[in-house]
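In the previous chapter we treated chains in isolation. Here, by contrast, the input contains two separate entities that must be folded as one system, with a combined length of 536 residues.
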Amino acid sequence: MSTTDTTLPQPDEIDPVVLANRRAKGKRPNFLDDPATERVLSIAMAVAGELAVARERIDTLERVLIQQGVMPADAIEAFAPDAEAQAARNQWGREYIARVLRMLEQDVQAMSGPQDPALEQVIAELRDASR
Amino acid sequence: MSRSDAPQPSWRQLGQHAVFPQATHDEVARFDFLMRLNMHLSQAVLPGVKLAYETRVKPAFVAAHGREPADRHEVRRAMQKDLHYQLWSALRRNTMEQRQQAGRSVVYRQLGALRDAADKINDGAATLKLDPAIRSPRYATAVDIHCMPGNYHTEEVPRDIGAGANYDAGLFITTAGALGSYSDGGGQALVDWLKQNRPDFKPRRILDIGCTIGHNAVPLAQAFPDAQVVALDTATPVLRYGHARARSLGVHNIEFRQASGEAVPAADGEFDLVTTAMFWHETSSTAMPRIMKEIHRVLKPGGLTLHLEQPQYANMAPFEAFMRDWDTYNNNEPFWTAMHEVDLDALLVNSGFPRGAYFETTMQAKVDRRLFPAPTGTEAGSQEDYGRTPRWTAFGAQKPQEARA
C-alpha cells in the first residue's frame, strides 16, 4: 500500500472522457481494403450503440410514465430546458461525440509520441528466447 | 443451433461487491448492447467466415496452388482478402474497442469513490503485499493486451484500482455472461475438476499465478476454506482491486502479492496446488520455462499443478487454428500464436516433472442460473466459435512424492 506516486493526479483532477477514449498500445490492424471505410464502419457502430441506448431509455421512460399515469399528452412538445438542464445536455453531448469519434482521436494518439513497432516484431521478440 | 429468442442476461444482474463500479441506466444499456452485438457477431456473422473459406477462399487457393492451405498462416493470408472475413474482423475488433471505451467511461467518472471503497478495505491489510521493486515484464507492457488501454498495470491516480474495475465490469460483455455473475467460471471449472477427479485432495497452500483481479482465485479459496491461497500478479491496480473485491465477497484466505511468476517469493515445496487460468498466452518464450521451473520448485512432493488454457494447435485443422489465432494479430495477444505451438509435455519435463506426469483434459464453465434462468443450456456456447465461449483445455502434472535428485 506504500506506492504513492505524487506525480499522478487525484481522481477529481482526471478527465474521464479523455481516459475513456485512450487507445490500446500496439499497432492497429486494418481489416478493410480502404482505411476510410474502416473508420466509417467504426463510427456507424458507435452510433448504432448510442441509438440502442437512447431507445432503451425512451422505452423505460414511456413505460414508467404510462404505469404511473403522469404524462400529459403534450408534455414533451411543451418542454423547454432551463440553464441547469442545458448544461447537463452540453456535458452529455461532449461525451457522446468523443465516444462516436473515438477512432479518429486514437489515430491522433497513434501519430503522437513513440511509434508502435510492427506487431510481428513483438511476436518474434516474445517468441525468441534469451533477449 | 442457438435460438434467436433465447434469454439474454443483462449486466445489471451481475454480482455486486464493494468495489464493483455502479452503472447508470444508459451505461447498463450500452454494456448490454455490446454484449448482444458480441453474441450476434458470434452467432450470425461468424458462421459466414467458415462458409467464405469453404465456398470461395479455399477453392481459389486450390485452383491457384493445386493443393489446400498447409497451415494457419496460409489460411490467414488467403482469408485477409475476403470481404466477409474483413467485415467480421473489423466489427469484432471495433466491438472490443467499444467495450473498453464503455467500461472506462463508467470507471473513471467514479474513480474517487471506487478508490475510497478500496482504500477502506485495503489500508493496513496484511493480505495485500505490494512491492515497489517489482516491474511489469516486457510481455505485459509491449502492447496493451486484448486492446485494454493501459493494460493491467497503468496507474492514472495514486493507489489506482481503475484497471481492475474496468476489467471486472467488462468480462461479462466479451463472454456474454457465460463466465457467470462473478466472472469466475474458470476458477469454478478448476474446482469442479478437482472435486470430481481428486476427491480426497485437500490442499493447504494454493498458489495462483497471474491472478489479475483474483476472479479465479476466489472460487478456489471458497472451495478450500481451510487453505491459504497466494495470488500473484505484477500489476498493482488489479491486485488492489482484487484484494478489496475478495474481502468484500467475504473471502479472507487469499493473500494478494505483487510478484512475478518467474521469481515466486516462496520456499521450495511450499504449495500443494499451483494454478493459472488463461495466463500462459500472455507471457513469452523466455518466461514460460522460468515460470514452470518455479512452479516445480515451490510445489510440495505429491503436489499438483493445473492450468486452464485454450487448446494447442498441434494436430488441429489449419482453418480452426487460423480462427483461434485471430487474437494474435487482431486483439493484441502477441504471444498467443507461439504459446499454442509450445510442446507443453516437454516444457513440464524440462522444468523437473517426470516423463509421463503431463496430463491434459477439457473443462467447461457451468451455466450460472442467476444469469440464465431457462434450463436450455449455454445458448452462447452451443455453436463452434473458436474459443469465444468458455470451453477450455486444461493441463497439469503431479510432482512425485519423492522429489527427484
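The first helix of chain B runs from residue 25 to 65. Confidence is low (pLDDT under 50) at residues 376-381 of chain B. Compare these points with the single-chain example from earlier in the chapter.
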